[in-house]
Design goal:
Layout: H1 7-16, H2 22-38, H3 44-65, H4 70-95, H5 105-116, E1 124-129, E2 134-141, H6 143-150, H7 157-168, E3 175-178, E4 190-196
Antiparallel strand pairs: 1-2, 2-4, 3-4
């Protein structure tokens, strides 16, 4: 069965269909197929990240770099990723209109982290506090950072870090989102924290 296209592929193909630029779409698809084959032994959970964002971002970026400057290619890819983040944010904003729903967010973040951002998916983390209205973890290994660097596209990791901030900053007056370090920026970890503003951290 054919894999579902990522939003990055869809946006790229929409931008370059017609106007004698469809050869770029074929080039991108070839690059993506090659990388998918190179990573075919990845776990199912890691492949969800590879197929959903990481490898399409590399394929699109390298295709764009063949016809424009790296900075221009970076800006186009940023547009795709940030538009997707803003769409996701609209869903969160609707949820936050439900009375007291904000109180569930630290718990929800903890559950999602354990299900999708775990060792099987290529992540490693240190749980600092996961209760009492506080979600605080230090992510010490991330496949976004590792895989992007392995394909000489480490710069792209910052886009996914910024995507997190678009989705999660200022969700609710009583929620605090904070991250002072990221692996993508060369730090030793991503120090994630989401907490109810009245709660103290350990």
């Amino acid at each position: 069965m054919r894999n579902k296209k990522s939003y990055i592929e869809r946006d790229f193909e929409e931008m370059f269909k017609g106007n004698n630029t469809e050869h770029l779409i074929l080039m991108m698809r070839e690059k993506l197929a090659k990388m998918m084959a190179e990573n075919s032994n990845s776990s199912r959970k890691k492949m969800a990240h590879l197929r959903g964002q990481i490898l399409p971002a590399i394929a699109v970026f390298k295709t764009l770099c063949s016809v424009m400057s790296e900075d221009d290619a970076f800006d186009i890819l940023r547009g795709y990723i940030f538009d997707h983040a803003r769409n996701a944010r609209r869903v969160y904003d609707k949820l936050m209109k439900i009375p007291r729903a904000y109180r569930l967010m630290p718990f929800a973040f903890s559950k999602v982290m354990k299900m999708s951002f775990n060792e099987e998916a290529g992540f490693a983390r240190k749980d600092i506090m996961l209760s009492g209205g506080v979600w605080r973890v230090d992510m010490t290994k991330c496949p976004y950072n590792d895989v992007l660097k392995s394909y000489d596209c480490g710069r792209l990791c910052t886009l996914f870090c910024e995507k997190d901030d678009i989705c999660n900053s200022n969700l609710h007056p009583k929620l605090v989102w904070r991250r002072t370090k990221t692996l993508g920026n060369g730090d030793d970890c991503c120090d994630f924290c989401l907490k109810i503003s009245s709660r103290k951290e350990v």
